[in-house]
Amino acid sequence: MTSDAIYCFDRASVLFAIYPEGSPEPRVVAAIAEDALRDVFGARGGGDSLVETCREHFDLIEQAALRHYRHDPGRPVMLGIDDFAFPSSFAADLVN
Questions:
Q1: How many angstroms separate the CA atoms of 35 and 28, rounded?
Q2: I need a labelling partner for 35 at 20 to 30 A (CA). Which of 19, 52, 61, 92 fits?
């Protein structure tokens, strides 16, 4: 699936939409922290790089966001580093 991701400087995150019930509605706006994109997925550079990294790894990011949403639908979906607990060998393969 593709992502309509945008960088949000004041929140230091990339915002994107998820569709828990399938496309097209209802849409839930989720976010992933800049730190997670850099430390987990290897983003380098500014906002454009962060958005591109989000798009490149959207399948994994979307899965984590849906898990987060389904666990507690009333809370905002803000993904951080801890939402991607991969073994270190897997994480290295993920960004290469």
A1: 22
A2: 19
The Cα 7–Cα 12 span in angstroms is 8
Taking the CA of residue 53 as centre, how many other CA atoms within 13 Å lie in the half-sphere pointing to its CB? 25
Measured distance CA(20)–CA(62) in Å, rounded: 10
Integer Cα distance of 25 and 23 in angstroms: 5
| pLDDT, tens digit (0-9, with 9 covering 90-100), for 11-63 | 999 999 999 887 777 889 999 999 999 999 999 999 999 999 999 999 999 99
CATH level 2 (architecture), domain 6-95: 2-Layer Sandwich (3.30)
Residue recorded with tokens 């992933």: 32
Indicate the domain borders of the chain.
6-95
pTM: 0.83
CB 28 within 8 A of CB 19: yes
* DSSP-assigned letter for residue 8: E
